[in-house]
Amino acid sequence: MDVDNETFRRMVRVTDGTLNEVLPRISDTDVQISRQRISAFLSMHTAYELLPESGKVVALDVDLPVKQAFHILHEQGIYMAPLWDICKGQFVGVLSALDFVLILRELGNRGSNLTEEELETHTISAWKEGKPYLNRQINGHGTAFSRHLIHAGPYDNLKDIAMKVLQKEVSTIPIIHSSSEDGSSPQLLHLASLSGILKCICRYFRHCSSSLPILQLPICAIPVGTWVPKIGESNRRPLAVLRPSSSLASALNLLVQAQASSIPIVDDNDSLLDIYCRSDIMALAKDRAYTHINLDEMTVQQALQLGQDVCSPYEPRSQRCQMCLRSDSLHKVIERLANPGVRRIVIVEAGSKRLEGIVSLSDIFKFFLS
Amino acid sequence: MGNVNGREEDFNGTLSSASSTSSEVSDSMSAPDGVVENPSPVELMGHSPPASPRTTQSPLMFTPQAPVVPLQRPDEMQVPSPSLMQTNSGYEDMFSEIGIPTMITWSYDGKEVAVEGSWDNWKTRMPLQRSGKDFTIMKVLPSGVYQFRFIVDGQWRYAPDLPWARDDAANTYNILDLQDSVPEDLGSISSFEPPKSPDSSYNNLHLSSEDYAKEPPLVPPFMQATFLNVPSANMEFQPLVSRPQHVVLNHLYMQKGKSSPSVVALGSTHRFVAKYVTVVMYKSLQR
């Protein structure tokens, strides 16, 4: 790889003459060209292309008790579903793993005696109505609870959808088609996520990667993701981590406060052991574990064990914790992220598996589309 | 009721050439999900109506082996076990390397025609076979988007009848977008009109006790062949679920909740343009 002299000298100066690594400089024109091409590609293709030839979507009635919903999603092996309001004849929202995290936290706060009662009768709509109060507690500033479902149509272009996902800070957008003008009789088609869009991008550019020059750069040279700050970099946001012995309550708190979708679990040497994702909350529905556990006493390790015992061929262990090295190319990282079910890649050091950073789908898209 | 599911696995299996399903699969399949079963215990014969011939302007000369992953028991699932520092994800290998045969044709004049493309980074040049006025070559490639060019009598050319584009250096090339499966020919499905009811004597007499003594008519066996029992595609670990048979479209399937009597599952498969969507809605019966 060509290294221009200026970069070489700069590196030497910074590292006191010992050259640990030579970072290829990321040229602005390369970034510009790549961004332009990706943007052009996304603008030309529509959400219809995200639909699989034969797909399946699960939706829930908004009057279902939350507990039923929890079990249904667990049985179906999914962790989010759009909500249908029969009276309005519309899709009104989405129930996701974050909702369950918040519910369990709430119940954990109030004591477990109320658990069964609450979940038995509490409907999804009642929960959603009570949510703005919670939101204010979390955000501090009361972000207006949007009562409108964030959705897209099948002929909206991929760029708009990706921007929507990033701006509204959601992970999935239902694709809904209504054949009539006033939006009545909506037809649910698909749940679109950045993963599907990235898959389209990968498929298109896989065999002409020369048109996206930044793909060849190593991931550490590109300003994406959250990285463990090195010694001396004090102005960086620290990367939230958990220990295997951390309580489930602390894990849930971190998920909510850091507004992250997953937290890596490391041992005392900062080596990566596993990762706890928001969607792992669904494992607590197994055998109604959530009714008889204490969030403060259960460790994340035990919580993940619960999920593992569920014989799920549809999420092999390997998919859970995708790793790569800092020297791996951007192309490799996005090919991995394009796999369905993978939402983030953890960057580790070779050999010791020391945690170095996390790159998620939204990080990549923010970089591509900014 | 369990054997209903077993038969369904057979049906899905017959759509692909390889199928290692067994009736034991039904036990592991029906347990985890909110299964929507047909209440009538009909025995599925295990054969399907012949797939409609793909009379489309597709580049495929013959129907390729549709790569449907046979439904397997969970512990038989052959996921390549990866090392932690694997260089490629096993999942990707399983599906994207399946080659799809496709034909590239040059139908303009020339003595010697060859083609080179981005499938191997423009390294090799393959000559095309002449058949009459056309030059053709058959390539087997994984699904994806490729760029290619023809070399006709030593000159780079592109075929204007195929999709093409121009790059920044004003080089023109053709584009091949190879899909996993042949898309439906919309003309043949959207213009489908159901045949009229045959002329006969229809009356509306009330049913008598004799009629009630008889068994109800059997549900047609093809109604069993729904995708409602397949685990949800949200995680999309089975992306190659094959196209549903047209007979199951626009029918409403219903299952009373197993765990609670106040929940009912409604399922239905619809066509949207050339794609099929199965929606399962869980509805509360409480008022």
Automatic annotation (TrEMBL), chain A:
What is the species of this protein? Answer: Medicago truncatula (Barrel medic)
Extract the Pfam families matched here: CBS
> Which protein are we looking at?
Sucrose nonfermenting-like protein
User: What keywords appear on the UniProt entry?
Assistant: CBS domain, Repeat
Signal peptide positions (record): none
Question: By its UniProt entry, which PANTHER family does this protein fall under?
Answer: AMP-ACTIVATED PROTEIN KINASE, GAMMA REGULATORY SUBUNIT, CBS DOMAIN-CONTAINING PROTEIN
Question: What SUPFAM superfamilies would the database entry show?
Answer: CBS-domain pair
- InterPro entries with a match to the protein in the record: AMPK_gamma/SDS23_families, CBS_dom, CBS_dom_sf
Q: What are the CBS domain coordinates in residue numbering? A: 50-112, 234-291, 317-370
TrEMBL record, chain B:
Q: List all Basic and acidic residues biased stretches.
A: 1-10
List, alphabetically, the SMART domains matched: AMPKBI
* SUPFAM superfamilies documented for this protein: AMPKBI-like, E set domains
Q: Where is the Association with the SNF1 complex (ASC) domain?
A: 195-285
Mind telling me which GO cellular component terms the entry cites? Answer: chloroplast
- Output compositional bias ranges, type Low complexity: 16-30
Q: Which Pfam families match?
A: AMPK1_CBM, AMPKBI
Q: What is this protein called?
A: Association with the SNF1 complex (ASC) domain-containing protein
Provide the species name: Medicago truncatula
